Structures are given as C-alpha cells and as structure tokens.
Amino acid sequence: MRTTIPALLLPALLLRAMAALVVWAPAVLPAQIQLTGAGATFPYPMYSKWFDEYHKRHPDVQINYQSIGSGGGIRQVTEGTVDFGATDGPMTDAQLADFRSKRGTAILHFPTVLGAVVPVYNVPGVATGVRFTGDALAGIFLGTITKWSDVAIARANPGVRLPATDIVVVHRSDGSGTTYVWTDYLSKVSPAWQQRVGKNTSVNWPVGLGGSGNPGVAGLVKQTEGAIGYVELIYAVQNRIAYGAVRNAAGEFVNADLASVSAAAAGAAATMPDDFRVSITNAPGRASYPISSFTWLLVPATIPDRAKHKALVDFLKWMLADGQGMVEALAYAKLPAPVIAREAKAIAGVK
Amino acid sequence: MTSAARLRYRRVVNGAMFGATGACTVAIAGVLLFILFYLFVNGARRIDLAFFTELPTPVGEPGGGMANAIVGSAKILALATVIGVPVGFLGGVYLAEYGSRGFAFAVRYTTDLLNGVPSIVIGIFAYTLIVLKAKHFSTLAGGVALGIMMIPIAVRSTEEFLRAVPSGLREGALALGTPKWRMLATVVVPAAKDGIITGIMLNLARVAGETAPLLFTSFSNRFWSPGLDQPTASLPVMIYTYAVSPYDDWHRQAWAAGFVLLLFILLINLGARVILRRRVAGGGRS
Amino acid sequence: MSGAPAGPPPRDARASRGGARAFAQRLVSGDEAARLVVTVASGAILLVTALLVFELWTNSGLSREKFGLRFLVTQTWDPNAGVFGALPFAYGTVVTSFLSLLIAVPVGVGAAIFLSEMAPPKLSDALTFCIELLAAVPSVIYGLLGVFVMMPLIKAHLAPGLRAALGWTPLFQGPFYGVSFLAAGIVLAVMILPFIVSVSRQVLLAVPPEQREGALALGATKWETTWRVVVPYARRGITGSVFLALARALGETMAVTMVVGNAPQIKASLLAPGYSIAAVIANEFTEATSDLYVHALIELGLVLFALTIVINGVARLLVLSTSRHAGSPA
Q: Which residues in chain A have Cβ-Cβ distances shorter than 8 Å to B275?
C-alpha cells in the first residue's frame, strides 16, 4: 500500500500541480466581464473572429462562444446557463413562450450574417455546371427521381450528357441549421415534401445515407459515384467541391455567392417582421440565390447584470457597424442596409 | 498416425498458431503506428512552441495554439482521477476480498451497466446534476462526468487483478497473524499493482479522448479558465470543433492536437511506471 | 475466499455484540473500518447508477407516456411528426457490437497470447505500452480515419472479396456505399482491441509458472500448454476484458456515427447502412428542438441501458454454464 497509494495518486497530483502552476500565472488579470454564448456551428468562424477583435478593442470584455448546435443554443439560453444564444433557424412561437415562462422575459432575435446551402454532387463524366430546379431537388430527396438521366434533371441541363447512373442521396445525420435551411427550401418548392417530410433541424428522410457533419457529407459525396448532398457554401468553397446552380423564384439559375445571397436578403428586407424571424429561402428577385438564410443571435430582453448588459449592447452596436466590414473576408455575406438600420433601433429593446 | 508423425504435426501446429498470434500482434501494432504516423504527418506542421503557449486565434490568423485546452484537459483529467479512481479501487477491493453474495452481485452487475452507458448520456447526467443547478458550465462538471466514466473500469480491473493474486500469499500473511486489512494493504495489493496500474492507465487513456460528455459540462472556452467553476477548453472538444470546420488550418490543428493528446497520455503512462519501478526496491518481477 | 483463522471475530459473532460503543470499538480495530470504507465505496457506485437511471427515467417522461411499450417496436423516427421508435437503433447497436466482438476477440486474445507467452519481456512491454496508447485516440479521430482511410480500403478490397466468397448469404447482399454495419463493426473492433489485449495479457502473465511447467514437463508443446492450460486458467480474466470491450462498443458514439451511414433501417445485409442508439443520441441531442424529441432521445438511452442488462445477463449465463462444464480452477 505504501507504494501503491502514491503511485496511484501521484499522476493525479502531478497533473493538478502542473495545471495549477500554469493557470496561476495568467490568472492575474484585471476585473473581467465574462459573457458566455452557445449555438449555431455555421457562423462559428465569424463569431470567433468578431469576439476576438472585440476583445482586442475592449480588453476587459471576454465573450466566450462555442458551437454546440442551434438547438443547443436555444435550449441553453432558455435554461439560463449561457448569456446569449445563436441559431440558424428562428425560434418557434412555442419556444418563445417556453423562454418567457422559464426566464420571465422575452427573447430577441438579431440577424448577424447571411449564408447559403449548396447542392454538391459526384456525377461520373460531369465535373461542373449541373443546374437544378426546385422540383428536381425535391424529387431526388423524396426518392421519386432515381437516375441522373431523368428528364426532370436533363431538362434544366441542355447540352450536358447526364449518365443513367443511380442517384445516391446523402443528407446530414446530425441535427443542424443547414438541414433546417435545406428542408425549409424544399418545403416551399414542393407541396409533396412539405406534407411528407416538413422542415426541421432533423427530419425523417425518405431515402439516403447520413453523413455526420459537413465533412461527413462531403466525404461521402466525393467517394460515392452518383451521389448528391448539401453543404454550407463556405464549406464547399474552402474545400473546392463542385456545387450546382439552383433555379430561383424568378426562374433564373443562380450560383451561390456573396452577391446572390445578399440579393436574397435584400429582397426579403422589405417584408421582414419586427422580430426579424424570417425565412429568406426562395426569395424574390432575379439575382437571388434561393437557398439562403440569416443566422441570428438570441438575446434576452432583460439582462439584470448591468455590466453584462452594457457589454452585450455595445457589442451588438459594434457588430452592426465595424463587424459587418469583416464578414466578406471569411466568405459570409453582409446584412443589407435596411436590415442593419432596423436592428440598430431594435437594440434599444434590450434592457 | 505414428508417434513421430504425430509429434511433427503437433510441432507444426505449434509453429502455425504462434505465427498466427504473432500476426495478430503485428497487425494491431501496425494500426497504431499508422494512426500515429497519420496524425504526425497531418498535424506536425502546426506543432511549434506557439501551440503549447498561446491561446487559439480566429481562423485565417497565423499563430495561435491550444495552451488553454492542454491545461483544461489536465485539470479535468486530474479531477476525474481523484473522483473515479479511489471509488473504483475501493469498490474493486470490496468485490474481490469482502463480497457478500447478494450485495456483491448487485455491485458487479451495476458496474458493468454503468460501463455500457454511452458517454453522451453520462454527460447529460452530469449536466442535469451540476450545470443546470449552478446555471453555468464548469470544469467541475466535466471532471465529474469523466470521473463517473472511470469508476467501472477501475472496479473491474482492480477486482480482476486482485483475484489473480494466488491465495497462498494471502494465507501466508494471515497465518502470521496479520489483520485482514493489513494483509490486503501490504501483501495483496502490491502483488497486483502492475495490473491495477495498467487498468488505471487504460482508464485514463480512454476518458482523455472523450468528447461527447464534455460538450455539456465543461463546454469550452476561448480564454483561460482559472479555478474549477468556469467553462474550460479541452483537447477533445477543440479537436472536434476544428475537425468539422471548413478550414484547412484548423484541420491541421485538430490533427496536431490529437498527436499532442496521445503524447500527453504517453508521458503520464511512462511517468507512473517509472515511479513504480523506482519504488520496488531491488529486483523481483518488474 | 480464503478463511481468516486468526484475527478479528467472525461475522456471526457480531449479532451477539450490540450498541454504538461496541461498534466504535470495532472500528478502531482496523478491519471493520476497512470493511466499512470499501462497502461505502461500493454503495456509492450503486447510488450513482441509481441516480443516473432515475434521471434518465424522469427526463424521458413525455416520450414514455406518449408511446408506452410501442416505443420498443416502432421503426419510425420522425422528429417533425413527433413519432419515435427504438427498433432500428437497437438492432444496429446489437449488430455492430456483436460484429466488433467477433473481429476483436480472436485477434485481441491472439495478440495477448503472443505478447505474454512468446515475445521477449522487453518487446512485450514496449508493444503493450503502444497498444494501450490506442485507447487514448479520441473517438473523433477514429471516425475521421474511418471515413478517409478505412472506408475506401474496404470498398476497394474487402467488400468485393466478401461478396465473392459469401455473397450467396443474405449477409453480404445489396449495394455497398462504404458506410455500413460492416464499417462500423471494424472501426469498433479497432477501438476495443486495446482493452482486450492489455487486460488479457496481464491476466495471462499472472498465471503461476508452475502451471506451465507442469504441462511442459508432461511433454506438451508450448502451444498446447498455452491453449489447454494457461488460457483456461486465465479464462475468467479474459472474459472480464471482453465485457469491458463490449461495454465500450455498446456506448461508442462519434466514430460509429461517421461510418455507419446513419440510416434508421433494419437490413440483414452487413453491407447496408444502419444506425445505433449511441450514435443517434450524439447526433441529434444538441439540436433537438422540442421537449418530446429530447425525451425520446433520453428514452433511447434507457433502452440502451436495458439492452446492456439483457446482453450482460445472457453473457454471464453463458460463462457460468461453460465454466461449470469445464470445472473452473479459480
């Protein structure tokens, strides 16, 4: 026992000593205001950049944001374990009511950036340039269109030789805002989809394989002949994956890029409700990319801690001004000016 | 078959079976080497002094490291060991040396059950137990989650290796008039210590790589996390976050972090064994 | 358990003593204190598990009320329509875990035998050390390696071979996309190998040399000694290592979800994509949008718990029956 107890505890003590030693040094800091946020994965790179830049300008404010998923963000902010949340899909009325009953105040949505979801594919013999209509996408994901040479796809691609290969559908297996946006779009363009599957962060897919996360879907599509899947635009661009153009509500086939995504948001800005909970998929406008989406920060309407309140409000103001200037470098699209103006007014609602 | 032929046959079987088992070993060692090689090749470029001393930077900015994640993992693992190992060890001692029929059966069965609970469910448990009540994420919650995961393996391995100690040793000590607890402490446990330490190291290695339970307990942190009641970064969570991101630089950091995690466990492993060897005065089986 | 001829009074004598003072006196004598401490620790384990089950039970209330026992036999999993069922996931968990054991136990025990009986001690120590390190590789990395390295390999070499040799059975029919029960079983096998190898080797090393010497003296070859004397002697410990490994296989999340295909379906073919309980909980818990959804996922956790009870029980019965026949030495 004499040898064993020290041998058992020594590693633990060593670790603890090491940790204490290293932590003790940088822990001598000025009084910090610490905010914690949780939520969507899609804007994580942008938020991490923003919070970092903000910390450089205001060294006494530490905003710690982690991506555990939109649903996770909604749940944690409702439980009060984090100061703010983030989500790719707006909260439902039921969730709003739940928040109010648990936290005693309302929750406000603030759009931050725009993003898009693109269809990626692996068609033997066709490297780029495939175009999809909403009907075709819905049919493929419903399982009614099973071959690449199907007339529904061929009609939109005159001059492209599409082989008679079987289509292998790949979707996200983990719940995600990306799925929410994709299924939201399909629900709008296909009544059959709306009725049979609907929109959610996780749905009962009629056909297909499930890839875990963007890398899972991209990996599967790359490895499987005849596969089609969907990923975030940033992911496709950064990893140089071919993605197709989609036909928008005005009948134009549009490729996803910063301009077409912003056009979609601009089109929706006019009819946006006051609480900013809006879906901009299948937006009007000739240059709009139809599978675009806002992403939101979720901020409680009442923040008792005065220091935290000031920090959050100041950050929101900064985000709408300087913050927007940083987004395009990371392949996100800026908020349209009318939306920014409305948000700036709405910040006053955070008390 | 003549006896000479039969002997030849038995010798051939001897050689063949040992060849087969050797092949199994080589295959497993090969897999490990491949994994290490892959991690190194993909992540080595990112391993520099900055990796160990700096905080993470946003994507696109050069430099940055995982210093807070390394320290965070160390704190969480230390906490988990302090929570899980003593309880598991004592439970194993109970099952091997004191067990009464009904209660021991219940404990053993329960331990096996606990072992089979998915790590994410244990994370959810620690979340409802600690995080929800405290209204914030914390290193403590992460340590508790991993500590609970360590208990079953500690119990199992302690019990197995205590049982493997021949009864002759026990009876010898008791015949000399030693009280039971002393006999266990000075004779049986030291005789089983190799196996018990192996069990603990294996245990630590396994929980060191767990991501799911940490997502809702220790969460993660962009900054330093002093004390035990703040969210803290940890290597597995960083690996997960970076690996599923779109960016090449973050992918490389994820591989590098995986490599560093393995190195970390290796060092702890080595350290414990070195200490052990030093304390065994003189020779005897190492 | 060896008796205690000398030392503290036997158990039944306690009944004749009474009172707190007598108890305190016995505590001081060391043995009772030791017994108390270890019993309390064991009790703590029971308590933690009971608390865990309690939490799982209360947090799955909505789902249990809505579906009752139908949950166990429903094949649909539709978060939007609010219909949830556990059957495809339970099936996948059982299939992938069983497959992983099928692969890992022979290979792992084989390697343990080699390391304990054949390899020179220094080499054996070094190799075992390395193999134990495999346990520290994060699940996420196993998953990524599975997707980028292992699946292409299986697709190119293993699957065609299996299909050629065994394609007439329902186990290897149908299209193959890489993600499958087979891929998950193989990844799990690699993940659980360190437990089997490490613990089995230790147990084999602990077999007294007299056992080996006796067999060798009777003219047995080394292999015969190992297989017929040493391994049976260590059988209990080896079985223990298999239980450890099985437990990890049942609960593994990240690596499995990246290679299993995440399709909630029940197919006989190992080449088909599937799902497992741990994988679906890991995938959907963070994003679960409604309370019923969350409760359904937690109820799945309860189902896994129940599955573990059943599988453990069956395995224990098997072990008990075989050792009764063989006449276990320990």
A: 6-7, 10
- The minimal CB distance from C258 to the residues A74, A176, A216 is found for A216
Q: What is the largest CA-CA distance in chain C?
A: 77
Q: Supply the range of the domain harboring residue C23.
A: 1-58
Cβ atoms of B257 and B66 within 8 Å: the answer is: yes
| Touching B: C residues 165-184, CB under 8 Å | none
C92 lies in the same domain as C175: yes
The answer to whether residue B193 neighbours chain A at the CB level (below 8 Å) is yes
**Measured CA distances, B80 to B87, B203, B232 (Å):** 11, 10, 15
Query: Residue C244 CA to chain centroid, in angstroms?
Result: 4
Q: How many Å apart are CA A242 and CA A260, to the nearest integer?
A: 17
pLDDT 10s digits, C266-280:
888 888 899 999 888
CB contact under 8 A, A74 and C289: yes
Distance of alpha carbon C273 from alpha carbon C285, whole angstroms? 21
Does A102 reach chain B within 8 Å, measured CB to CB?
Answer: no
Strand order in the sheet with A84-87: A61-67, A33-39, A84-87, A292-300, A107-122, A227-232, A168-172, A209-211
Q: How far apart are CA B159 and CA B199, in angstroms?
A: 10
pLDDT tens string C62-120: 888 888 888 888 888 888 888 899 999 999 999 999 999 999 999 999 999 999 988 88
Report CA B136 to chain centroid distance, whole Å: 27
Angle among Cα C61, C67, C72 to the nearest 5 degrees reads: 105
Q: Name which of C76, C279, C287 is nearest A202 (Cβ-Cβ).
A: C287
**What distances in angstroms separate CA A80 from CA A300, B268, C289, one per listed residue?**
10, 38, 16
Instruction: Tell me, yes or no, whether C199 and C285 share the same domain.
Output: yes
Min Cα distance A230 → chain B (Å) is: 14
Closest CA to C184 of C271, C303, C105: C271
* C261 and C125 within one domain: yes
pLDDT along chain A (351 residues), means of 10: 52 57 47 87 88 92 88 87 90 89 92 93 88 94 93 90 92 85 94 92 87 82 90 85 92 92 85 87 90 93 91 93 89 88 90 88
Q: Identify whether residues A338 and A232 lie together within a single domain.
A: no
**Looking at the structure, do residues C178 and C290 belong to the same domain, yes or no?**
yes
Predicted confidence (pLDDT) per residue in A34-80, tens digit? 899 998 888 888 998 999 999 999 999 999 998 887 878 888 899 89
Task: Pick C288's closest partner by Cβ from A175, A197, A220.
Answer: A175
Question: Is residue C180 classed as helix, strand or coil in its secondary structure?
Answer: coil
Cα separation, B171 vs B66, in Å, equals 53
Is residue A204 located within the same domain as residue A260? yes
Please give the tally of structural domains in chain A. Answer: 2
pTM, to two decimals:
0.82
Q: Write out the residue range of the structural domain in which residue A63 sits.
A: 35-114+292-349
Chain C residues lying within 8 Å of B23, measured CB to CB: 110
Q: Sketch the domain layout of chain B as residue ranges.
A: 3-35, 47-281
B47-281: CATH number: 1.10.3720.10
Q: What is the DSSP string of C204-236?
A: HHTS-HHHHHHHHHTT--HHHHIIIIIHHHTHH
B279 at the A interface (CB within 8 A)?
yes
How many helices (DSSP H) and strands (DSSP E) are in chain B?
13, 0
Residue type present at position B220:
S
Residues A225 and A122 sit within 8 Å (Cβ to Cβ):
yes
What does the DSSP 8-state code read for residue A166? B
Q: Taking the CA atoms of chain B, what radius of gyration do you get in angstroms?
A: 23
Euclidean distance between CA atoms C243 and C199, whole angstroms:
11
Q: What b/e readout covers A140-163, taking b as 16+ CB neighbours within 10 angstroms? A: bbbeebebbebebbeebbeebebe
